[in-house]
């Protein structure tokens, strides 16, 4: 097999995550154009906005409402959109190999490839659908909605995504029995009043919450850390915590003990000064993995990439200590938490809808 020729690029943006989207929009608003030959590498021609996924799976949105086409944004900035997936990165040489064999050598590199749900030991006896990539989950959901719904559907996870998805799936697949299995108390990072309200909501909607750790699947049975084996499920949706992609762990980049790329407060790799990382794939000081933080890092990332290209000093990213969370409960309402505050109501869903649709319309270029 002949090897694809090596292409040089002054700037490679890898992954069209939330941070890169915000950064690209910032460059457009400021009239900054990255050097000719810059590339954005992403597996799909559009970027999905995770905040609207529960609304999509509840049947409230259409896919085109929740995705941003990348070509117009890239074309506007003179960036080439490369549809492909990073398979291998050599950080010392800033060499990228994509899954189809194409290779790039980048002078400056920015990674925003998100994360994937934790892997599970399994024997293939049960369909397992991870929440990311979203497009795969959406395709599966359409099959379920169009007449092939599972009788018993399990969801693994205890965070906001698992909670929202359980309620969304219950709303759109009323004949399926949904069970949620989480290794920590439900919504453990949120105020206890919100946790209790969330548990009550699940109970009212007929969704079981089992506090136990899913460790694997054998012969169609879900194996739990307590020794319990659950049977009778037709499929499992994995919405467990963020796990780093393998390609970043073998790259030579310094990573934290979990495998996330270690960066300083300027979003610059601690081991390779011409590589930046942001969002869920990175370990950013004082930030945790969620869409809100990924979005907030966008401005600093755009400014610092521009500063590196123009040999200017870098800025520090200052995360806010409190994060606003709005969780769609697929019944016309949403739960809200902000630091120790918790609330719920139709107004919270209205607010969430407003914020989500504003994000999409702001980043979409016709
Ligand atoms: C259902 C659901 C609902 C959620 N709701 C919320 C919410 O309301 N609020 C909140 O704060 N957080 C929410 N989250 C968490 C949020 O999705 C993530 O924290 C956020 O998406 C992380 O953004 P990111 O910028 O790191 O990358 P992502 O948005 O995950 O995007 C990564 C991009 O990189 C691409 N990519 C992946 N691998 C490669 C590769 N090898 N090469 C090239 N490109 C690659 C992907 O295709 C994708 O386009 C939710 C998550 C889920 C699953």
Write the layout of secondary structure elements.
Blueprint: E1 6-14, H1 18-30, E2 39-42, E3 46-48, H2 53-57, H3 63-66, E4 67-69, H4 70-77, E5 80-83, E6 86-90, E7 95-98, E8 103-111, E9 116-117, E10 121-122, E11 128-130, H5 134-148, E12 152-156, H6 160-172, E13 177-182, H7 192-204, E14 208-211, E15 214-218, E16 221-224, E17 229-230, E18 235-238, E19 242-243, H8 246-249, E20 261-262, E21 275-277, E22 282-283, H9 291-309, E23 324-328, E24 334-338, E25 341-345, H10 346-363
Parallel strand pairs: 1-2, 1-8, 2-5, 8-21, 10-15, 11-18, 12-13, 12-18, 13-14, 20-22
Antiparallel strand pairs: 3-4, 6-7, 7-8, 9-19, 15-16, 16-17, 23-24, 24-25
GO molecular function, one term: NAD(P)H dehydrogenase (quinone) activity
Organism: Halopseudomonas phragmitis
GO biological process, one term: aerobic electron transport chain
Mind explaining what this structure looks like?
- There is one protein chain.
- This protein is α/β, with parallel strands linked by helices.
- Helices cover 31% and strands 28% of the residues.
- It contains ten helices and 25 strands.
- It has helices spanning 18-30, 53-57, 63-66, 70-77, 134-148, 160-172, 192-204, 246-249, 291-309, 346-363; strands at 6-14, 39-42, 46-48, 67-69, 80-83, 86-90, 95-98, 103-111, 116-117, 121-122, 128-130, 152-156, 177-182, 208-211, 214-218, 221-224, 229-230, 235-238, 242-243, 261-262, 275-277, 282-283, 324-328, 334-338, 341-345.
- Strands 1, 2, 5, 6, 7, 8 and 21 form a seven-stranded mixed beta sheet that branches.
- Helix 1 (18-30) crosses helix 4 (70-77) and helix 1 crosses helix 9.
- The mean pLDDT is 95.
- Flavin-adenine dinucleotide (FAD) binds next to helix 1, strand 2, helix 2, helix 6 and helix 9.
């Amino acid at each position: 097999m002949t090897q694809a020729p090596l292409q040089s690029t002054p700037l490679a943006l890898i992954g069209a995550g939330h941070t890169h989207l915000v950064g690209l929009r910032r460059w457009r608003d400021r009239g900054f154009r990255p050097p000719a030959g810059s590339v954005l590498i992403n597996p799909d021609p559009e970027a999905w906005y995770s905040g609207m996924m529960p609304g999509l799976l509840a049947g409230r949105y259409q896919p085109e409402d929740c995705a941003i086409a990348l070509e117009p944004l890239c074309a506007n900035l003179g960036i080439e959109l490369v549809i492909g997936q990073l398979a291998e990165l050599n950080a010392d040489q800033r060499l990228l190999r994509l899954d189809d064999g194409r290779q790039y050598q980048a002078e400056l590199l920015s990674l925003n490839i998100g994360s994937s749900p934790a892997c599970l030991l399994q024997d293939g006896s049960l369909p397992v659908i991870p929440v990311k990539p979203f497009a795969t989950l959406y395709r599966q959901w359409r099959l379920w909605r169009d007449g092939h719904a599972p009788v018993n559907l399990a969801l693994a996870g205890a965070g906001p995504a698992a909670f929202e998805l359980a309620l969304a799936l219950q709303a759109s697949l009323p004949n399926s029995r949904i069970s949620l299995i989480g290794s920590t108390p439900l919504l453990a990072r949120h105020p206890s009043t919100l946790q209790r309200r969330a548990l009550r909501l699940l109970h009212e909607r007929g969704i079981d919450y089992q506090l136990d750790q899913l460790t694997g699947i054998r012969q169609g049975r879900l194996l739990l850390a307590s020794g319990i084996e659950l049977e009778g499920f037709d499929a499992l949706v994995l919405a467990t915590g963020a796990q780093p992609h393998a390609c970043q762990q073998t790259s030579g980049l310094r990573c934290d003990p979990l495998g996330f790329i270690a960066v300083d407060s300027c979003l610059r790799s601690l081991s390779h000064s011409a590589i930046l990382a942001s969002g869920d794939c990175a370990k950013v000081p004082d930030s945790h993995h969620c869409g809100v933080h990924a979005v907030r890092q966008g401005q600093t990332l755009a400014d610092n990439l521009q500063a590196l290209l123009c040999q200017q000093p870098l800025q520090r990213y200052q995360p806010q200590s409190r994060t606003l969370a709005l969780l769609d409960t697929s019944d016309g309402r949403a739960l809200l938490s902000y630091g120790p505050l918790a609330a719920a109501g139709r107004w919270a869903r209205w607010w969430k809808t407003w914020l989500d649709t504003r994000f999409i319309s702001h980043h979409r270029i016709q």
